[in-house]
From TrEMBL:
InterPro entries: Bact_Sigma-Reg, GAF, GAF-like_dom_sf, HATPase_C_sf, HATPase_dom, PAS, PAS-like_dom_sf, PAS_4
Short name of any one Pfam family annotated for the protein: HATPase_c_2
Domain PAS, first and last residues per copy: 154-190
Domain of life (superkingdom): Bacteria
Membrane-spanning parts: none
Keyword Hydrolase: yes
Protein name listed in UniProt: SpoIIE family protein phosphatase
Keywords: Hydrolase
SUPFAM superfamilies: ATPase domain of HSP90 chaperone/DNA topoisomerase II/histidine kinase, GAF domain-like, PP2C-like, PYP-like sensor domain (PAS domain)
Provenance organism: Streptomyces kunmingensis
Record-linked PROSITE patterns: PAS
């Protein structure tokens, strides 16, 4: 009877063999069958190697759990290859040969095995019987003296947290409430990632979300408590599924120093296995690290410090990696110490007294109280004795490994030699993993910068550029960021944008930064530490705490101790400032911050510096664009006529739409202005083309019309002189169609008009009976011929009549092969009887817009005038 199953598929690449081994090991460990793991892993490794390496196909691994056995099936897509059957007497060759060795191992280690074929697959399977065990026994240790037992609090609290398939918390017991300060109703339904302080580096390592997907996981991280502090915990995760088949993860959490409650005992060769060749040739690296070794650098370093601490029965351990020039050591892993406070902190190798001055040699400090500052990493931690050894590869310093204890005189040269032996075994693996991480980081950084450049280049809006820069920074590079901008060289920096990965912290962070002086705008490239935010946050938290205890002056308005402490925790780590330099001028500063006691790693700062250069140029481009747009819009607005005058006895309405984004004026123009007492000039025209070049001619035409009309020239003389002015522009001259007229309102409610229509669409008159007719005759356009002979026509608008004047952007509106045209415009106008001038203009524009789905490609202008007649009381 099958009681559980697990399956996975592995691609035909070399690394799949190691991944398959880990899959089988994790599966059997999760089922509680550690006794058979070694045999099962060996057989799986051989069979998967045959599939993905020798046969070159993908491999499917299926683990089946029965009542008294485990069956593992390995399938590949190479059925043609001949495999001897279990009952066959075929000689499978020497054990030293690679071919056939997996089947020999199956015959030797498995209780049963066999081969099944199908048209597309070949399946090799083996079955291992489960050993009989005493009920309830999985592992046991010897009786130890009381003083050698692990140290724990008076009551050990085990937080039980269950996470559903989406990563949200579904269970939170009383011990979890006590350890972390959150009541269950405050965290239920929230992602565990909101609380977990998981060391994160772009492009590397395994995150908390990934760990929750594994069948089993064990290790250290931090949980942010309600007070804002990070509590180091040791966790054991087990992936389960309910009766409906939905997966979830059960997490058991204890204080990090009580890890012995959950920690799986280290698997070492048993004393009685000395007769086996496998134990004689055991890899010292695997003996120290355990098998399988973590496949990521952070996991490997964390496992190393944990094993080093256990090996020397220490209270803490730490590991630092050297920079490329070997001048500094960077903290990368620790246990038993406030790791979040120390992570990525840097210390010099050859400067200062004691341990770091002799990093290239093993060193033992019997009592740190006698040599204060000898090991800066341990200052204030209560550690007294410490032993450190170098990690070297081919004679080059690559790191340093240390263990420490709270009691003095715990270590001697003997422990130093043991630790050095272990360090020599793992140095090459650590260096290889470090180089792999750097390569991943470089690839990730390149991808990050390419994406950042694309996003920044996609906008010329300053506010959007600021938001993009902040969102790319948080949380990839920092926990929070602030951008200070400088308007000009004589101005002081001002806070322009603030972002935190927790939106609830943004207001508190902004308030805190507003109360402190901005950083100095130093143009020197690179990141520099800015301690002011952390100091201000700690002082604010201290004052709030004292007020809550009645020890300080009461605040008139209190934001609450929780908010202040949370802000202090969010800003209490390392803060760095990078200048935003564009075109040899500092235009602002990018400020990046970490939460309490965290540090930036150098690779992240270099990536941030590269981003700041790109962002500075994008911000400056946005500034230049905004300035030029403001100038352009100001000039364009100057070309538009001022507010239309009131014409007694005549309703006037104008609608104007310039084509092109950002254009307020184009090639179409209009005007209405008083000429003399009782007389008004009006015009509507269209310059060939659109955009700024056409707008320049509209300005010339509009101002010339006003000037000439007020000098007493009649319509033909005005247009003839305007024609000469346009031709004088030479190569910059443009064709111009123009309808110009003069309007005289009459006492009887009518209006007399004198008009000249120079190549422009003819004006239309709408009578009260709904008839529509052209109201002028066509004449030559302007800007073509030197000698024009124009004449004006005198017309009368009766009470209730409407005069509609438009540009060709209205009549030439197209939808495919259809065009609105003069007839279409006349048809729309005929339905406007009885409407005011404003209503007529609005209905015409609405009809034009609805005629086609696309945005208009030409400027459009509508001038509507209506003579309502004499109003009687």
């Amino acid at each position: 009877m099958i009681t559980a199953r697990a399956a996975a598929t592995f691609e035909p690449v070399g690394r799949s063999v190691a991944t398959a081994r880990s899959f089988v090991r994790d599966t059997l460990q999760g089922w509680g069958y550690a006794d058979i793991i070694d045999d099962a892993v060996v057989l799986t490794s051989e069979l998967v190697t045959n599939a993905v390496v020798h046969a070159g196909t993908s491999a499917e691994v299926l683990c089946l759990r029965g009542d008294d056995h485990v069956r593992i099936e390995v399938s590949d897509r190479y059925p043609e290859r001949e495999i001897p059957l279990q009952s066959s007497a075929i000689n499978m060759g020497s054990p030293d040969r690679e071919g056939g060795r997996g089947l020999q191992l199956c015959a030797a280690l498995a209780g049963r095995w066999g081969v099944d074929y199908s048209a597309t697959h070949k399946q090799v399977w083996f079955q291992i019987d489960l050993p009989e065990r005493s009920v309830g026994t999985r592992a046991a240790g010897p009786v130890l003296p009381i003083d050698l037992l692990p140290l724990a609090d008076e009551r050990v609290r085990v937080a039980v947290v269950q996470i559903d398939k989406t990563g949200a918390i579904t269970a939170w017991n009383e011990d979890a409430e006590h350890l972390f300060g959150y009541a269950a109703d405050l965290v239920m339904g929230k992602p565990l990632t909101d609380l977990a302080a998981w060391p994160h580096t772009p492009g590397t390592s395994t995150g908390i979300a990934d760990a929750l997907q594994l069948s089993r996981w064990e290790g250290s991280y931090g949980i942010r408590s309600a007070s804002g502090r990070v509590n180091p915990v040791y966790a054991s995760h087990l992936r389960v599924r309910d009766t409906d088949g939905d997966p979830s993860t059960v997490c058991l959490l204890v204080r990090d120093h009580e890890r012995a409650v959950l920690q799986t005992p280290l698997r070492l060769p048993s004393p009685d296995s000395g007769g086996h060749s496998d134990s004689q040739g055991a890899d010292p690296f695997e003996v120290f690290i355990g098998s399988p070794a973590p496949d990521d650098l952070d996991g490997l370093l964390q496992r190393t410090v944990e094993r080093a601490r256990d090996m020397l029965d220490a209270d803490s351990a730490f590991l630092l990696l050297a920079t490329d020039d070997e001048t500094e050591l960077e903290v990368r892993a620790s246990t038993g110490l406030p790791s979040a406070r120390q992570r990525f902190a840097r210390v010099p190798v050859e400067v200062g007294p004691g341990r770091y001055g002799s990093a290239r040699m093993p060193a033992v400090h019997e009592d740190l109280d006698q040599v204060p500052g000898a090991v800066p990493l341990l200052s204030g931690t209560g550690m007294r004795s410490v032993v450190t050894v170098p990690l070297k590869v081919e004679g080059r310093l690559t790191g340093s490994l240390g263990v420490a204890a709270e009691a003095p005189d715990r270590y001697s040269n003997e422990e130093a030699l043991r630790l050095q032996f272990a360090a020599d075994r793992i140095a090459m693996a650590v260096e290889s993993a470090r180089l792999g991480e750097l390569e991943k980081l470089r690839r990730g950084s390149l991808s990050f910068l390419v994406e950042a450049s694309d996003l920044l280049a996609g906008t010329l809006d300053r506010d959007q550029t600021l938001a993009l820069m902040a969102q790319m920074t948080v949380p990839t590079l920092a926990t929070w960021c602030a951008v200070y901008m400088i308007a000009d060289q004589a101005s002081d920096p001002y806070l322009s944008y603030v972002l935190h990965e927790d939106e609830d912290r943004i207001d508190g962070l902004k308030a805190l930064l507003s109360k402190i002086a901005p950083p100095d705008p130093v143009p020197t490239p690179g990141a520099r530490v800015w301690p002011a935010p952390a100091e201000a946050a700690h002082q604010a938290a201290l004052r709030t705490s004292m007020r809550s205890l009645g020890l300080g002056e009461p605040a008139s308005v209190s934001s609450g101790i929780g908010t202040t402490l949370a802000t202090a925790s969010a800003v209490g780590g390392e803060t760095v400032v990078l200048p935003l330099v564009a075109r040899n001028r500092v235009i602002g500063m990018l400020t990046l911050g970490k939460p309490t006691d965290e540090h930036f790693r150098q690779e992240i700062l270099e990536l941030a510096e590269d981003l700041s250069r790109r962002a500075a140029l994008a911000l400056d481009n946005a500034r230049l664009y905004s300035e030029r747009m403001a100038i352009s819009q100001s000039l364009q607005r100057s070309l538009l006529p001022p507010e239309l005058p009131h014409v007694p006895g005549v309703e006037v309405e104008v609608i104007y739409r310039a084509a092109g984004e950002g254009n307020e004026v184009g090639g179409d123009f209009y005007d209405l202005f008083p000429i003399r007492d009782g007389a008004y000039g009006f015009a509507i025209g269209d310059v060939c083309g659109t955009g700024p070049e056409a707008a320049a001619v509209t300005g010339l035409a509009r101002h010339a019309l006003r000037l000439l009309a007020r000098e007493g020239f009649g319509g033909p003389a005005v247009l003839e002189r305007l024609n000469a002015a346009i031709l004088d522009e030479g190569a910059r001259s443009r064709f111009l169609t123009l309808l110009y007229g003069e309007l005289w309102p009459q006492e009887d409610g009518s209006a007399v008009l004198k008009m000249v229509c120079a190549g422009h669409p003819l004006p239309l008159r709408l009578r009260q009976n709904g008839s529509v007719e052209p109201f002028a005759e066509p004449q030559p356009l302007l800007g073509v011929m030197d000698d024009l002979e124009l004449y004006e026509q005198t017309m009368t608008l009766d009470p209730g009549d409407v005069l509609l004047c438009v540009t060709d952007g209205i009549t030439e509106r197209r939808e495919g092969t259809r065009m609105l045209g003069d007839d279409g415009l006349a048809e729309v106008l005929s339905g406007c009887t009885g409407l005011t001038a404003g209503a007529v203009a609005a209905r015409i524009m609405r009809a034009v817009e609805r005629f086609a789905a696309d945005a208009p490609s030409d400027d459009m202008a509508i001038l509507a005038m209506r003579v309502p007649g004499i109003q009687h009381d």
